[in-house]
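re: that chain from earlier
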Amino acid sequence: MLAVALVAAAGSSSVAGAQATPSDAEVTLARELFREGVAHVRANEWPQARTAFERAYALVPRPSVLLNLAAAQVQTGRLVAGAESYRRFLREVTSGPDARRRPAAERALQEVESRIPRARIEVTGQRDADRLLLDGSEISSAVTGVALPVDPGDHELTIERDGETVGRASFTAVESQEVTVHVRARATRRRPAPIESPTRRRDRDDDDEGSVASSPILWTAIGVAVVGGVVAAIVLLSGEEDPYSGNVPPGVIPLP
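^ sequence. v structure.
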């Protein structure tokens, strides 16, 4: 069984945009959500457990919470996200008390990676301005022709052009297997560029000739200088062990 503990984290920064220190209320809520997630795990309610761990980690991003979140993601079929959570844990935890869980996380990651299916997407007829979407979320055209990791289950691939769906393909991904998906964008007429009337063109030219910005005197009299700067910040982290802990059932992340 994997023992996990929720530890409050503190962070400070001298510039805006750095991670803010969680308030006492947020730490308390994160602890409650963590314990709620563990209770859902014991009741075999993995979707609810995943939601609770996601919220707890968003409030107080501790490695122990991340491990529980990874397990819940995998148990609910979100293998790609679960693998990324394990990788994040291994990247961030290199020393300290949580480092003793690295071997278990490495084994769990290896097992999950072997289960992730992949989709090789082949697209024809796509234009440069077209949008390629997987399950409603836009993806880069750079993923075409290579094996893209996807979660097991049913998926839909679409091509959008000027807000209209011009190509669609559905497929099912099976664990540990690769599937090739062909989607073709149907031909559509290119929208002609709007034609400007002669009267409007004359009015615009007259405005340009009479504007202050068009005066050569203005541009010869004004110099423009751009000064750039780089602001660096050092984030100081401190933590204190929290007495609350919970257990994940055997087999999720087996310990030696």
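Helices lie at 24-42, 46-59, 63-75, 79-92, 102-115, 198-210, 216-221.
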